[in-house]
Structure formats: structure tokens, C-alpha cells
Amino acid sequence: MAIVLYVGGSKDGDKGLVPHGFSKSRADTENGPEIYTERFMELPGIGRIRVMALESLRDDIVHQQMARHYR
Predict the structure, then answer these.
(1) Are 24 and 45 in contact (CB under 8 A)?
(2) What is the rounded distance in angstroms from the CA atom of residue 50 to the CA atom of residue 3?
(3) C or N: which end of the chain has fewer Cβ atoms within 10 Å?
(4) Is 51 helix (H, G, I), strand (E, B) or coil?
């Protein structure tokens, strides 16, 4: 298990547990399913972060959201 930060969608800002081998997860919401995919990103001053981000988000938006949650 690893602790990851969720970025985007209904889980934005949540931290949760995800098994090491999982690269996707799904959340069923009132507005339909949300698919999160695993990404590793560098955050200056913090290091490499494992993030589960909404599949449809561009990397630059994920990076901005991730930085906001770490400040």
C-alpha cells in the first residue's frame, strides 16, 4: 500500500491508500464514473510525488493542483 494524493474530480485533495501495483482507480459519483490514473511528478522542494489524477487532466493542470495541495 502507498499513500497517494488524488487530484481532480470529486476526490480532489483527498489522500488515500492505493496498492503498489494499481495504476488506475475508479470513483462512482452522482455525475457518473471518474477514472484516476497514476502519475509521478516532481515538486520543487518536495521531490517525486505519486499522484492519482483524473484521467482527462493535462499534466500541467495536475502539477498546478498538486502544488496547491502541498502548500
Answers:
(1) no
(2) 8
(3) C
(4) strand
Q: Provide DSSP, 6-43.
A: EESGGGTT-EEEE-TT--EEEEEETTEEEEEEEEEEEE
Yes or no: say if 53 and 7 are a contact pair by the CB < 8 Å rule: yes
What pLDDT digit, counting tens, does each position of 2-52 carry?
Answer: 788 999 999 999 998 888 888 999 999 999 999 999 999 998 888 898 899
DSSP 56: T
Residue the block writes with cell 499522484: 51
Confidence (pTM): 0.84
Helix (H, G, I), strand (E, B) or coil at 57: coil
